[in-house]
Amino acid sequence: MTAVSRIPSLLGVGLIWVWRLTFGALFPTTCKYHPSCSEYAVQSLRRHGLVRGSVLAGWRLLRCNPWSRGGFDPVR
Amino acid sequence: MLYTIPIFSQLEGVMKHVLNFFHSSIGLPWAWSIVATTVVVRMILVPLTIRQIHSMQNLQKHAPQMKEIQKKYKQDRQKQNEELMKFYRENNINPAASCLPMLAQLPVFIALYYTLKHFNENFGIKPNSHVDLSFLHFIPSISDHTTSHWGGFVLLFVYVASQMASSFFMMTTTDKMQRVLFMVMPLFFVFVIAHFPAGLVLYWVTTNLWTVGQGLITRRLVGKTPAPVIERRSSRTPPKDDGSSGNGAKSEAQPPQPPSASQRPRQVRRKKKRTSRR
Fold first, then answer.
1. Would residue B6 count as lying in a domain?
2. Across the interface, do B173 and A30 touch by the CB < 8 Å criterion?
3. Using one digit for the tens of pLDDT, what is the confidence trace for B92-150?
4. Do A27 and B170 touch (CB under 8 A)?
5. Number of domains in chain B
6. Does residue B255 sit within a domain?
7. What is the ipTM of this complex?
8. What are the chain B neighbours of A65 within 8 Å (beta carbons)?
9. Would residue B238 count as lying in a domain?
10. Which end of chain A has less neighbouring CB within 10 Å, N or C?
């Protein structure tokens, strides 16, 4: 990816950091997956860009519910 | 600026109706309508809580083995995490924490924030009219900034205490550094939350107290499960594993383990019992 095409995904990564420092800090929970949901989102945005990365991150968030089993789940 | 995003105004509209229902239809004061809304939200999340209690019981059962894994990979945190996650999967453990229920509370928070921010316009209250927005005689108005009255500081103090208590109960990590971090966090967060309307702090205090109550009940329930003996568990896991995975290849790959001396007589006795019944 070129520097310019990376800008949208970097914006997404910035948003995740805002979440981590503000609202995410309020909840003392650790994710059931490894890497954690926010880490997964950062990685998928960096690797797949804003659109595909966000979809992947959103799908992971939906999977991170009390009925799923959790575990080792890296970005593909 | 964020208000221009349509979903926020829709959220505000929903919250407006909910608060109005508690105030006008049930007749609660405004401040208590917020408390009632919080309680309703948490009651909706109760099924998740029950699930969490089961998870915690399961986690506690396997605690000794998990500690062993943590000891084994003390230097490599990444590897330690991966191994723990594998262990969860192999033993069908569902860690108590997950991200989605946490995220589900965000819209409620945003909705309440905007509803309180535009409180007077939302409910058609004129600036000089005498409407009771107080809470327990120490908060004069739930739509004012928390720090605009001495009562707000009391509320902030209660917030810090309740947040620390709820962190204590919600924590699933055994890492000491993280535990300390979560306990200290509210001390920093209080500076942010001080700028919010008092009603929003009231929401947080209520939800935290609910968490604490839930934590106390959970502890009592989890505490009742007997601590398992490691030897007994090792004899129980293999058949459970076969049944849950249903993976024929997996069971083939494992060489049949000769039962230990302590297990053999028990198995024989069971077989005998079955044949005698039939």
1. yes
2. yes
3. 776 656 778 778 778 888 899 999 888 888 888 777 777 788 888 888 888 888 888 88
4. yes
5. 1
6. no
7. 0.78
8. 98, 100-101
9. no
10. C
